[in-house]
Automatic annotation (TrEMBL):
CDD domains in the record: ABC_DR_subfamily_A (cd03230)
Pfam families: ABC_tran (PF00005)
Tagged with keyword Glycosyltransferase: no
Annotated protein name in UniProt: ATP-binding cassette domain-containing protein
Species name: Glycomyces albidus
Gene3D superfamilies: P-loop containing nucleotide triphosphate hydrolases (3.40.50.300)
The entry's keywords: ATP-binding, Nucleotide-binding
InterPro entries from the UniProt entry: AAA+_ATPase, ABC_transporter-like_ATP-bd, P-loop_NTPase
Keyword ATP-binding appears in the UniProt entry: yes
Length: 241
């Protein structure tokens, strides 16, 4: 597995109002890997992701992405972010949406169509985005991100509400991107997706309770699956046998 860190987070602290959301978290994410960010709703996953892409105001600590401070100008063409809600124009077709983002980053219409085909939306390219299903909107939003060929791709719960077939197709795509050298950070609250990742960050109440490979996490907790491992860690923290 590659050892070069694409993302380095050091003692990151984020407050919302007077409430701490992230409590001095640190980690390194290797280039060319898929890292899963898992945890229940309200654990701080979206805040952590926004810190990586540079859209979150932080109280203290540092976030370096590809050797630059998160959100700075050198990263604009190298980092892509797919939000929970599809970031597309409802009054444009799938093709027009992706072509628009392609033009912003100096990509061709041919490359836009390749991105559309790559997420399985070729048969829907002429449909208005506003008329798409939830899963189709998610895939269109992903195509808009992929057309820039990002070195780092950050996805905030991209498979929520999708049927198993579409989820499987997206994860195959994520693995192919990592194999090609891209670095992916994928948030989820679905534990059965965890085994698809090279490494896991388990976030609870604003702190990492684990930062390990799926296999090592199961071995360390003496459990047969990752859901059991997660529960084991939570109970240990709470002093429950």
């Amino acid at each position: 597995m590659p050892s070069t860190p694409a993302i380095v987070v050091t003692d990151l602290v984020v407050d919302r109002g007077k409430k701490p959301v992230l409590r001095s978290v640190s980690t390194e994410i290797s280039a060319g890997t898929v890292t899963g960010l898992l945890g229940p709703s309200g654990s701080g996953k979206t805040t952590f992701i926004r810190s990586i892409v540079g859209t979150q105001k932080v109280k203290s600590g540092t976030v370096q992405v590809l050797g630059h401070p998160a959100g700075t100008k050198p990263l604009r063409r190298r980092v892509a972010y797919v939000t929970q809600d599809a970031s597309i124009y409802r009054d444009l077709s799938v093709k027009a949406n992706v072509a628009y983002f392609a033009a912003l980053y100096g990509r061709s219409r041919h490359e836009a169509m390749q991105a559309i085909e790559g997420v399985g939306m070729g048969d829907h390219a002429d449909k208005l985005a506003g008329n798409l299903s939830g899963g189709q909107k998610t895939r269109t939003s992903l195509a808009c991100a992929l057309v820039i060929e990002p070195e780092v791709l950050v996805l905030d719960e991209p498979t929520v509400g999708l049927d198993p077939v579409i989820r499987e197709e997206l994860w195959d795509r994520f693995r192919a991107l990592a194999a090609g050298g891209a670095t992916l950070l994928v948030s989820s609250h679905v534990m059965d997706e965890a085994d698809r990742c090279d490494r896991l960050l388990l976030l609870r109440d604003g702190v990492f309770i684990a930062d390990d490979t799926p296999a090592d996490l199961r071995a360390a907790t003496g459990t047969a699956n990752l859901e059991a491992a997660f529960l084991h860690l939570i109970r240990a923290l709470e002093g429950v046998n």
